[in-house]
DNA sequence: TATGAATGACACTAACAAGTATCATTATAT
DNA sequence: ATATAATGATACTTGTTAGTGTCATTCATA
């Protein structure tokens, strides 16, 4: 009833203003994300998307062809932002920590789960996610490794990435572990580096225990 | 298969014999597997399951409650056979090769994909798959590592398992790589062991080059 | 100011799928 | 033997959902 409460406001009818029109598409995708993450692509109905976005089905159809169109647009917009955060002045260890933390967040675990689930129907989304995710992460790891340890150590970039994800990431894909904490991510990154002999010279060598 | 080829024989009507009754349930699950693997749980209809199993919907309902019942029974029966092959007399390297080969087979990739996709709706299946899959594999790797390298090396069992899967397994979950060949599996296993310093004393140390 | 475009609200259609009913048929069980 | 249970074939009912139609409303644009 509180007509000014943005959470309960009933969207007014009629043609939107220019700014509203610009934002509408992004709002729809933003609203679709948690719906798809929670229920999975196949179980989401168009009405759910419309309700979540606080628009009608007709409006969504004016922006996208169908449910597949909303889904692919959402995944693409998310996938291309995965690698956008590029504070290039960090160390190998801090880069590893950020990768562990980011890839084990609830959103990215859910996105990965969605794309795996629909990789048969949307193979191009799988390719997009990998190109913008894993491939860029590995390339960036390789750059840092080359800078700190020389060209000879570069082949360890991909195994390092694999270890950064580790069994924990597999468990999270299966819903068997909660999202990682920052402290856990740091610890995990250090141990992965140690396993491959990639400890930074300036950093204390962490004990392998626990 | 054998005399009564299920692909060409028209199943007779009426109450099945005792042996038919025993086999019917397994046949339904066997027929359901490729259907679920190809289309994903949410997109499979009961009629598809019935057609694939060469029975009617009524019959399936006499064995299972609903589609979820067929799915969970199928996944459970498959998951419990994942770790059944136990030629305990092999080396660490041959064990690793078998793990790489098996977990990258089309069937297990598809099963894993299915369970990941439905982990929200069927969390107990995710737990079952992990308990009967990853957990047992890691335990067996730990046994071999302890026998060959002593207790101190046992903590490397889980990282080893992670490296055995590697980026390739992630790509296969996304449908970006075909199933692994036996030769590739061997090569991959050797390189993973070398990265963690777990080369067997009797084996030639493989070069790190790709 | 007048016309048209985009929207919300709501109803509608068509297709599809889950689950049930019926009947003839074949085997089991008593 | 006779009744009963399970099945195949087929049609049916019921619920859900994608997609469309209609109309009033609000704003853009000329």
UniProtKB/TrEMBL annotation, chains A, B:
DNA-binding region location:
45-64
Q: Where is this region: Disordered?
A: 1-21
Please give the Gene3D superfamilies that the UniProt record associates with this protein: Tetracycline Repressor, domain 2
Using the record's annotation, list all stretches that form the HTH tetR-type domain.
Answer: 22-82
GO MF terms on file? DNA-binding transcription factor activity; transcription cis-regulatory region binding
Print the keywords alphabetically.
Answer: DNA-binding
PROSITE patterns named in the record: HTH_TETR_2
Q: What is this protein called?
A: TetR/AcrR family transcriptional regulator
């Amino acid at each position: 009833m509180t007509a000014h409460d943005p959470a309960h406001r009933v969207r007014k009818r009629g043609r939107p203003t220019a700014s509203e029109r610009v934002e509408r598409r992004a709002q729809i995708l933003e609203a679709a994300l948690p719906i798809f993450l929670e229920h999975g692509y196949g179980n989401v109905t168009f009405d759910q998307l419309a309700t979540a976005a606080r628009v009608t089905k007709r409006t969504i159809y004016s922006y996208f062809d169908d449910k597949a169109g909303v889904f692919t647009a959402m995944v693409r917009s998310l996938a291309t932002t995965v690698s956008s955060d590029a504070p290039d002045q960090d160390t190998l260890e801090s880069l590893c920590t950020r990768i562990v933390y980011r890839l084990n967040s609830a959103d990215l675990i859910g996105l990965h789960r969605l794309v795996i689930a629909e990789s048969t129907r949307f193979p191009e989304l799988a390719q997009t996610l990998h190109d913008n995710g894993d491939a860029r992460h590995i390339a960036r790891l390789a750059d840092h490794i080359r800078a700190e340890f020389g060209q000879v150590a570069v082949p360890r970039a991909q195994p390092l990435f694999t270890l950064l994800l580790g069994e924990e990431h597999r468990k999270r894909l299966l819903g068997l572990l909660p999202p990682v904490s920052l402290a856990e991510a740091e610890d995990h990154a250090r141990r992965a580096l140690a396993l491959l002999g990639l400890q930074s010279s300036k950093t204390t060598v962490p004990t392998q225990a626990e």
